[in-house]
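Appendix B, record 7
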Amino acid sequence: MDFPHLPSPVHAQVVDVRQQSCRYSITQTMYRSDPVVIQGWSAFHRLLLSLFKFLAPFIRRLELQNATRSLFRGAQRLLLVLLHDFPDFLAEYYFSICDAIPPRSIQLRNVVLSAYPPKLVLPDPHLVDIQTDMSPVPTILSDFMAPLGDGELRASLDRYLVGRGTTAFPNMLKEQLLIPGVSSDSSSERYGLSFMNALVLYIGATTAAQAKARTGSTAFNPSDPGASLLAQLASELDLEGQHHLMSAIVMHLRFPSAHTQWYANLALHLFIEVKTENFQEIATKVLLERFIVHRPHPWGALVTFIELLRNPKYEFWSLNFVRAVPEISTLLESVSASHVTG
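Structure tokens (predicted):
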């Protein structure tokens, strides 16, 4: 099937994706026989980012016409091919790929976040202790530090993460998260999501590495400066900011790894630490959205949700918003029955 009626740039994108979706073509580019293949990975990664950056405006506005809908379906199939044949590619480039996919495309992100190293056997999520060591630290090929820059902001952040920052830094960081010139009553996006996503990963990865160097373990410690900074942001951001922050945290709940364990414990800590039911409702919504779409569902998100719903420490089923609307209560009970009770 051809698309002669499309403008040339769109037509080129469609043809390019169709060609790259061919399993043989992908295999020739992606087969990891030696370190040189990383060059092929890098080129394919750039092509994939271009595809999602092109699709992003249409997805955000929910304006998928025939041509862009076909392209979107092609992107879905392409990710599924990669998940099946080259999961290590998705696992190592997950951050930049998910950052390029608009947040409302939860199922696309789920496909990426469900990838794990081929030799890894996933434990039964119902039998996992969230406190058990989940080493090693995962490989991340995405350049997640680029959005943070290398100027004074990055230097101030580094100082804060080793306990040498000023008390004014969190407030300055909150300002940096906002897009300049967008008012609070605007219908446009107010937060720089790429910056927030990069910030959350940089803080978590740095804090876990510091803990490893200090104690030999990457275990989550709520008193670490990085954990305290994220807890302060979660407490002080508005509802929109809290939603984006939780989405950025949940992005790292993947296969068993030091990062999955750290961010899972962070999410559960924030559920108790942030003393407002609004935040607890937002955290529940962000997690629940991962399971009301078709499979696959990320292993780490499932482990975290199981812990939240099963552990009486979190008093989840006694929260007002859980019982306030019968439809929500029914939905949560349905998801709990299918995913949590095992």
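Remarks on this record: Confidence is low (pLDDT under 50) at residues 1-8. The longest helix spans residues 37-60.
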